[in-house]
Amino acid sequence: MSYNHLTTFERARIETLYGQGKPIRAIAEKLQRSPSTISRELKRNSQKESYQSEYAQEKYNERRLNCGRVGKWSSELAGIIQEKLHFTWSPEQIVGRLFQGSISFKTIYRWIYQGLLVNQDLHVLRHKGKRQKPQETRGRFNVGTPIRKRPKEIRKRNTFGHWELDSVVSSRGKSKGCFATFVERKTRWYLAIKTPNRSAASMEQAIKTLNERLSSGAFQTATVDRGKEFACYRTIEQDTDIKVYFADPYSSWQRGSNENANGLLREFFPKKTDLANVSNDGLEEALSFINNRPRKCLNWKTTHEAFQEELLHLI
After folding, report:
1. Are 50 and 59 in contact (CB under 8 A)?
2. C-alpha closest to that of 64 among 81, 42, 49, 52
3. How many other C-beta atoms are found inside a 10 Å radius of the C-beta of residue 160?
């Protein structure tokens, strides 16, 4: 990349390492940055000796915006936009979060096509016009509470703590490596947990792991398909306070948030990827990209911001 500013992911890493009590030089070595860079970042963006990456990124964006006018192209503006494009934000997300009323997302597309941004590299644009291939048939079962009995407030996304679940698998013949994936319906916050296979036992362990991590009340229901990995639903309902609802057969739109989020994850790990070889750091980085994009449906908040706000309400 042509810029040297700290990125969103680097700030998240600083927050994690600094919170663990790591010294500045150790953090700098981990990020392959100068210790003075890390020191300035902490002094400039810490609050009461606490460093939060979201706050630091907001302050950075404010400072960059004050460098010059945003109503027309400039090298400063191009630097901000290019950073977000490299972090997989769409032009509409960039404008919605940073430049409402100043420029149009169509202007960003035009600048890309004209070669004024990212050297006319269209690969930075996430949408490539590709249609997903039909999913392979999986083992299914005809038991469980159907989605039509799910309360209406869950469907309308009015309440927090209701999740959609699925699994992402390696290409057939590659390996049994798999991700159990979770999306909170109201905030669209997305999580993936590595599992050794797509068995019911592996899914049960992943669900219980997430439930243990979350605050009380943050995981109330799960909406799933009829894949064999969810045959564990009886144990989940017995051992936890989670109620499981099953979507209708061949109705992926009833779990649209999860289907969409899995598609975003596939941009980082295409279908030919052996998911067993994906490192925890690599998966964490991909999830950080996805959860730190502003969303139009959230009034340009990120899913991370929306999720953290809801957690505060549970305290």
Report:
1. no
2. 81
3. 20
Of the two residues 19 and 183, the one the predictor is more confident about is 183
Task: State the chain's mean pLDDT as an integer.
Answer: 86
More reliable by pLDDT, 4 or 137: 4
Phi-psi region of 274 (alpha: psi -120 to 50; beta: other; left: phi over 0): beta
Q: For 93, list phi and psi in degrees, rounded to 5.
A: -65, -40
pLDDT digits (tens, 9 = 90+) for 239-276: 999 999 999 887 888 899 999 999 999 999 998 899 99
Residue 190 pairs in a beta bridge with: 183
Beta strands in 211-304 (DSSP E): 221-224, 243-246, 294-295, 301-302
Residues contacting 36, CB < 8 A, separation 6+ = none
Distance (Å, rounded) from C-alpha 222 to C-alpha 184? 9
Q: What is the rounded radius of gyration, in angstroms, for the C-alpha atoms of the chain?
A: 21
Lowest mean pLDDT, pick from 106-110, 138-142, 158-162:
138-142
Find, among 35, 55, 32, the residue nearest to 45 by Cα.
55
Contact predicate 300/96, CB 8 Å = yes
pTM over 0.85: no
pLDDT tier for residue 69 given thresholds of 50, 70 and 90: very low
Number of C-beta neighbours around residue 178 at 10 A: 24
**What is the structure's pLDDT at 25?**
92
Residue written as token pair 């991700």: 179
- Stretch (H or E) spanning 178: strand 178-184
Distance of CA 195 to the CA centre of its chain: 18
